[in-house]
Amino acid sequence: MLIDSFAKLNSTSRNAISAAFVILVAIAMYDWIVAPHVAHLHAVQQYESVVAGLAKKNKILSSAVRIKKKNLEQLHEKFAQVQSTLFMANQAKEFFSDLQAISAQAGCTVHSLNLVTAGESSEGEPSNGACGIVTKSALLSVIGGYGNIVRLVEMLKAREQKVWMDSIRMASLDSFGSAQDRDGSGRLKCDMTITICTIQDKEA
Is the pTM of this model over 0.85? Predict the structure, then answer.
């Protein structure tokens, strides 16, 4: 019936119907074949854009991590250098216990040795308790020649751990005469305040 009706139409109507049919087929083909591919390509483009953005962010983060790691390594090196100048708690005890022996090696006689409590420390010494670092001081009084006293100070300064001389005061001994020279032949009484810094042992 449709074929007969189509055959009875004039050429213009038949051409219009044919064109409409072709358009409908084209639309159907687009929806079935082309549209899915277009959507897939669009999704691929978005995925590539996201991946490129993530790669860029990853590169920036990696660079930042390398910089932070390098800075951390430098801080570790500096801390190790500083730590080597500090006393462990047991080393501090040994140091103060050895002051008499060290003085004897320098040719000085210890007149008195008094440890200073935290509240009696001099104002010029480093602060207590910073990053686990605590200062300890001692008042050392020795008797000896000028050269011997200088040698004692040099021996204390030459230690691997840092030793601060907060104050040094020398005076002549009346009992040995008032005229003193600095060639090591006379005898002097020297009072000095010695300060060291201690740090808690990691293992402890």
Answer: no
